[in-house]
Design a protein that fits this description.
The protein is an all-alpha fold. It contains 20 helices and 4 strands. The strands form 2 sheets. It has a two-stranded antiparallel ribbon. A two-stranded antiparallel ribbon has the order 3-4. Strand 3 and strand 4 form a beta hairpin. The radius of gyration is 22 Å and the shape is globular.
C-alpha cells in the first residue's frame, strides 16, 4: 500500500511540477495558440494501447502480479505519456492533462464512489432463486431503472442481489455479461441522467426528454438481447442437473434493509439533474474552468456518500459482501486510462487537421456517425467522444451558427444524425469492460463474489462480437 501511494504521488508530482513554468508561459503567450491535437502523431496513442493491453493480458498471464501491482502499471503508462509531453509542450500539455483530470476524472470518480457507497448499504434479504424468469425480470427492472437513476446507479443497486440469487448456478459468467449489456449500458439511453454522453448533450441544448426519440432503437436492442439471454439461461438451467434444491423451510420472505439509502441515491440523481438546469457562474481551478454548480454537485454527492456510511449499520454492508476493492481498482486504473487517452481525444478534436483526419474526414452519413461514435466509445470515454461528433455534426450542417440555434435546427431538420451519435455512444459502451464506467465495477464485484469472468478479449470475442455487433447491424439497417 505504501508503494502504491508513493506511485500515485509521483504521478501527481510530475503532472504538477511544471505548474510555475506553465503559468509563466501563459502570461508570455508562448503556448496559448498551439492546438496540441494538430501536432501530435499517432505514436502518442501507444501508452493508451499499452494500458489496454495490460488490462487485457496481465490478469490472464500474470494474475498474481496484476492483483498486487495494477496501480503501478496504471501509473507507469500515465507517466510514459505525461512526462514527454510535459517536457516538450509544457503549458499546453499541462493544461490538457489538468483539464482531463479536473473536468472529467474528478466528477467521474466522485459519482462512481457515491453510487457505489450508497448502493452498498442497500441489502435485499430473503430467498431469491435465480431461475431464467427471475433473472430476466431483474435484468429488465435494471434496464428500466438505468435511464432514471443512471447506468451506474442501477447496476450497483442490483448486481449484488442478482449474484446472490444465482450463487447456486454453475454457469454465471454469461448472466453478468448480459447484465452489463443491458443494465450498465443500453438501459441508460432514454434520459440525460442515464448516461454521461446524453447529459453532455443536455448541457449543450438538447431538451431533456428529446432522448425518448431513441426509444425505438433501445426497444429493438433490448428485445433482441433479452430474448437471447432467456434462451441461453433456460438452456443452461435445464442442463444443471446438480441444481440448488431448496426446502420450503429454508425459504425466507423478501425484505429490504437500509432502504433509507434510496433517499441518498435520489439525492445523487437529483443533484445531477439540477446541475444541468442552473447557472451559478464559473470557477477557474489551475486554469481549468468548471461551473460552480458542477463543484456543488460533486460536493453534494460526497455528502450523500458520507451520510450513507454514517447511517448504515456495518452489519448490512457485511451481509452485502461490500468491500472497497472494486472502487479502488476503478480509481487507480481509470486515472491511467484518462491520462493516456488524452492524446487520443486531442487527435479526434483536431478533426481533419489531426493525425486521425483520415477517419473523421470520412464521416458523412448517419450510419457513419453511429458506428464511429460507437466503436470509439467502446475504448475511449464515451462522453467526450459523443461531444466530438456532436460538434462535428453542428459544424458540418450549420457552420458559424450560434450553438443554441444550431442545436435547435439540427433537432428539427436532421434529427437522425443526433440519434445516431446518441445511440452509438450509449449502446457501444457495452462492447468492452472499459466502454462505460460501471462495466469494470460489475466485473470486479462479480469476481469477488466467486463468479469467474471472461478476460478483456474473452469478453469481446465470446460475447460482444457474437451478440452485440449483430444487434447493432440490425439497428443500423432499421434506423440508420
Amino acid at each position: 500500500m505504501r508503494y502504491t501511494r508513493l506511485t500515485l504521488f509521483l504521478v501527481v508530482f510530475f503532472a504538477l511540477s511544471p505548474l510555475v513554468v506553465a503559468a509563466e508561459d501563459s502570461h508570455q503567450g508562448t503556448h496559448e495558440h498551439i492546438n496540441l491535437g494538430e501536432i501530435l502523431s499517432l505514436y502518442s496513442a501507444i501508452p493508451f494501447v499499452g494500458i489496454l493491453l495490460s488490462i487485457a493480458l496481465l490478469p490472464l498471464f500474470a494474475p498474481e502480479f496484476w492483483h498486487h501491482h495494477f496501480a503501478k502499471v496504471s501509473a507507469f503508462w500515465a507517466l510514459f505519456i505525461a512526462i514527454p509531453l510535459l517536457i516538450s509542450h509544457r503549458g499546453v500539455a499541462l493544461h490538457s492533462f489538468l483539464h482531463v483530470l479536473i473536468a472529467d476524472y474528478v466528477p467521474f470518480i466522485i459519482l462512481l464512489w457515491g453510487l457505489f457507497t450508497i448502493s452498498g448499504g442497500i441489502l435485499l434479504r430473503g430467498t431469491l432463486r435465480g431461475t431464467p424468469m427471475v433473472n430476466t425480470s431483474i435484468i429488465m427492472i435494471g434496464t428500466i431503472l438505468a435511464s432514471w437513476m443512471g447506468t451506474t446507479g442501477a447496476a450497483m443497486l442490483l448486481i449484488r442481489p442478482f449474484l446472490r440469487a444465482n450463487s447456486h448456478r454453475k454457469n454465471r459468467a454469461f448472466m453478468v455479461v448480459f447484465f452489463i449489456f443491458l443494465v450498465a449500458n443500453i438501459g441508460g439511453a432514454l434520459t440525460p441522467v442515464g448516461d454521461p454522453p446524453l447529459f453532455l448533450g443536455f448541457l449543450h441544448g438538447v431538451p431533456f426528454f428529446w432522448t425518448f426519440h431513441i426509444l425505438p432503437h433501445m426497444l429493438l436492442a433490448v428485445s433482441l438481447l433479452v430474448g437471447i439471454y432467456f434462451v441461453i439461461d433456460s438452456y443452461y438451467y435445464r442442463r444443471e442437473t446438480q441444481g440448488y434444491q431448496m426446502d420450503e423451510a429454508e425459504k425466507e420472505p423478501l425484505s429490504l434493509a437500509g432502504g433509507y439509502n434510496l433517499i441518498f441515491l435520489a439525492g445523487v440523481v437529483g443533484s445531477v439533474i439540477v446541475s444541468g438546469l442552473v447557472d451559478w457562474g464559473e470557477i477557474n481551478t489551475l486554469g481549468v474552468v468548471r461551473t460552480l454548480q458542477e463543484w456543488a454537485r460533486d460536493g453534494f454527492i460526497i455528502l450523500m456518500g458520507i451520510l450513507s456510511l454514517v447511517c448504515t449499520a456495518s452489519q448490512i454492508r457485511e451481509d452485502n459482501a461490500f468491500t472497497w476493492f472494486p472502487i479502488k481498482e476503478v480509481a487507480y486504473l481509470f486515472v491511467g486510462i484518462f491520462i493516456t487517452m488524452t492524446p487520443c481525444l486531442l487527435l479526434l478534436l483536431a478533426g481533419s487537421k489531426g493525425a486521425l483526419g483520415f477517419i473523421t474526414g470520412t464521416v458523412r452519413e448517419p450510419f457513419h456517425y453511429f458506428w464511429i461514435t460507437g466503436v470509439l466509445s467502446s475504448f475511449l470515454d464515451n462522453a467526450p467522444t459523443y461531444l466530438t461528433f456532436f460538434t462535428s455534426i453542428l459544424g458540418n450542417f450549420y457552420p458559424g451558427t450560434p450553438e443554441p440555434i444550431a442545436v435547435s435546427r439540427l433537432i428539427s431538420e436532421n434529427p437522425t444524425y443526433l440519434m445516431a451519435v446518441s445511440a452509438g455512444a450509449v449502446f457501444f459502451g457495452a462492447n468492452t469492460y472499459i466502454g462505460n464506467a460501471p462495466n469494470f465495477m460489475v466485473r470486479s464485484i462479480a469476481e469477488e463474489a466467486g463468479t469467474p469472468m471472461p478476460s478483456f478479449f474473452g469478453y469481446m470475442v465470446k460475447y460482444s462480437i457474437v451478440f452485440l455487433v449483430p444487434v447493432f447491424i440490425i439497428a443500423t439497417i432499421v434506423f440508420f
